[in-house]
Amino acid sequence: MVTRSPARPLAGIFWMLVTGMCFIAVTALVKYMGARVPPVEMAFLRYLLGLVFLFPAIGALREAHLTPRQWRLFGVRGLLHGVAVMLWFYAMVRIPIADVTAMNYLSPVYVTIGAALFLGEKLAFRRIAAVVVALLGAFIILRPGFREVSSGHLAMLIAAVAFGGSYLTAKIMADEVKPSVVVAMLSIFVTMVLAPFAVAQWVTPALPDLMLLFCVACFATAGHYTMTLAFAAAPLTVTQPVTFTQLVWAVLLGYLVFDEAVDIWVIAGGLTILASVVFITWREAMVRRQNTTPAVNATKV
Predict the structure, then answer these.
(1) What pLDDT, in 10s, does the model give residues 46-95?
(2) Which end of the chain is more exposed for a tag (fewer CB within 10 A), N or C?
(3) Is the Cβ–Cβ distance between 11 and 233 less than 8 Å?
(4) How confident is the model over 190-199, as a mean pLDDT?
(5) All residues at 6 or more sequence positions from 189 whose CB lies less than 8 Å from its CB, including other chains
């Protein structure tokens, strides 16, 4: 019989705070690089350089014995995630850091919608209301008619949908294969998806840029690992609200380092979306832990 480890809320909060710092470091490095390297190439090199972290999973991959159906699902997930990552890198060099971070909170909302449409999960009235509130938060951030909605904002809207599809596929695969296999296959397929797009607009990067992109891969890998530690230590109802700190760091980073103005509407919209995500997470924990949609937060690169 499997025994569940006792909850350690302080440890969960600590690891989620570390996760936020890791993902904000990713954001800062990508923003710092700017347009010196095309966004698609940056995304490709981030995953290519990150393949070095897959060596511990080689044994699990050999033992997986994946079926043709599982290969197809991994391929679909790699395509969705690859598109999402390209759009995220594109948005990061075109719109403020706070906008990207706030709109990134939409991913778990799209996961909730997708789970109802494709996995048969029930959408109670309260969850529907929470989804509507989250979409209202996105409207507050974009404010069409009152501000220019740039291509970067549109890219983040589509990226959140693509990320949602990726996590829905991961939800299916996590019930069938080891987590290490799920992570490794994602990295492999995303690298393959990004390769032709990167080659099409290749610009030979300078050595300092390669080093920065390797740091991006390190921080992103560390962030995913510490997020796993947070989820293992405490329930999502404890760790989910801590993701708010990422918006705080993003606003401060943009203002202090990149001279980006503080937009109160972006903060208000981000908090609205986050409140919806926290409510959805809390409701799922109250109803039943099994057959529910996992909340997904933070930067997904």
Answers:
(1) 999 988 888 887 888 888 788 889 899 989 989 999 999 999 999 988 88
(2) N
(3) yes
(4) 94
(5) 74, 75, 77, 78, 79, 81, 82
The model's pLDDT over 228-267, given as tens digits with 9 standing for 90+, comes to: 788 777 776 677 677 778 888 888 888 888 888 888 888 8
For residues 177 and 66, the answer to whether their CB atoms sit within 8 Å is: yes
Distance (Å, rounded) from C-alpha 68 to C-alpha 52? 26
- The dihedral region occupied by 147, where left means phi > 0, alpha psi between -120 and 50, and beta the remainder, is beta
* Measured distance CA(226)–CA(166) in Å, rounded: 20
H helices of 105-178, where? Answer: 107-118, 125-142, 151-174
What pLDDT does 242 receive? Answer: 78
Amino acid residing at 42: M
| Listed residue (46, 23, 294, 38) closest to 186, CA to CA | 46
Give the global pTM: 0.79
| Residue 153 and residue 91 in contact, taking contact as beta carbons nearer than 8 Å | yes
Instruction: Please give the Cα distance from 171 to 32 (Å, whole number).
Output: 33
pLDDT-based confidence at residue 190 (cuts at 50, 70, 90): very high
Residue that is written with structure tokens 């503080």 in the block: 262
Q: How far is CA 149 from the centre of its chain?
A: 22
Question: Which pair of tokens denotes residue 150?
Answer: 């740039």
| HSE-up of residue 146 (Cα within 13 Å, Cβ side) | 6
Contacts 24+ apart (CB under 8 A), 55-62: 56/180, 57/180, 57/181, 57/183, 57/184, 60/178, 60/180, 60/181, 60/184, 61/181, 61/184, 61/185
The number of beta carbons lying within 10 Å of the beta carbon of residue 98 is: 26
What's the CA gap between 126 and 64, in Å, rounded?
A: 40
Length of the chain: 301
CA dihedral defined by 14, 16, 17, 22, rounded to 10 degrees?
130
Q: How far apart are CA 278 and CA 239, in angstroms?
A: 9
